[in-house]
Design goal:
This protein is an all-alpha fold and 265 residues long. The protein folds into 2 domains: 170 residues, no CATH class; 70 residues, no CATH class. The chain contains 11 helices and 2 strands. The chain has a two-stranded antiparallel ribbon with strand order 1-2. Helix 3 packs parallel to helix 7 and helix 9 crosses helix 10. The chain is globular, with a radius of gyration of 24 Å. The termini are far apart. 20% of the residues are buried. Its main location: membrane. It is a multi-pass membrane protein.
Length: 265
């Protein structure tokens, strides 16, 4: 397979890379829950949460820009929260046409949701960039996630690479048969209607190939003794430093959550 560009993992030997995957997964889940449960308008708490994730990003040696660019994945959540600006009752700040107005409470809730989404996406990116996917699967299994769900997630991820590789081969074959010109002034390959027909045929062919490939893969797995459990070597025990990081960060997150509930609850 050649679709390695899909893998978000970045090689490294930073302290974040060396931290046990089970600890990283538990801390990311706790971080996202803390962010989600923080009341709207608790700006000091959001700043401290962002400082925490920023410190982890600096320790990962991948660069702040690496995470900031990928954090644009939070943009759909921000756009989905835009209606809150005019639908939440409160003190009007900016009148708009059609009798609408941006309210103070709506702006506060919109900014809070945007911050939650942004820092939560950064936490997920940090986990995926510093932990291999097999390690994440083993961490899920160690945390008690049902083995069937872990198997489905693992197979779905691996099969995605197979599918993308199949698409790339089909695109190369189409290019080789269409005689495309390197000159931008000369258009080859037929009209837009013809291209749409070819794309539709490729989509149908990909669907049939995926069914055949999945059937062959499943029978190959059964022939090798697959019974629903993806087996691996026993995981090593947690180091003292892993336990220490888990305790300190969880205590910090719990303190932030309690403080936010007391002051802004």
């Amino acid at each position: 397979m050649h679709a390695n560009f899909l893998d978000p993992y970045q090689e490294g030997a930073s302290p974040v890379h060396r931290l046990d995957a089970r600890i990283k997964l538990a801390l990311v889940i706790a971080f996202i829950f803390t962010s989600a449960l923080t009341p709207a308008g608790a700006w000091p708490i959001f700043i401290l949460l962002f400082s925490l994730i920023l410190s982890a990003e600096l320790l990962s040696d991948l660069g702040i820009g690496f995470y900031m660019k990928r954090a644009l994945l939070a943009l759909p959540f921000v756009l989905a929260a835009l209606p809150l600006l005019v639908t939440v009752d409160g003190v009007a700040l900016l009148p708009l046409p059609l009798g609408l107005s941006i309210t103070q409470q709506g702006l506060e809730r919109f900014l809070s949701i945007s911050l939650r989404s942004w820092i939560s996406v950064q936490a997920a990116i940090l986990l995926a960039s510093t932990t291999t996917f097999p390690d994440i699967l083993r961490a899920m299994r160690a945390m008690g996630l049902p083995r069937l769900m872990v198997a489905i997630i693992g197979l779905m991820w691996r099969y995605l690479f197979v599918m993308v590789d199949e698409v790339l081969r089909m695109l190369r074959a189409r290019t080789a048969r269409s005689g495309e010109s390197e000159s931008p002034e000369r258009r080859t390959g037929g009209t837009i209607f013809w291209r749409s027909q070819v794309a539709g045929g490729m989509a149908g062919s990909l669907f049939l190939r995926s069914l055949e490939r999945s059937d062959r893969i499943y029978h190959a797995m059964l022939a090798r003794g697959y019974d629903g459990e993806i087996r691996s070597l026993p995981q090593p025990g947690l180091r003292p430093v892993d336990w220490l990081v888990l305790f300190i960060v969880l205590l910090f997150l719990l303190s932030l959550l309690v403080l936010s509930r007391i002051l802004w609850g």
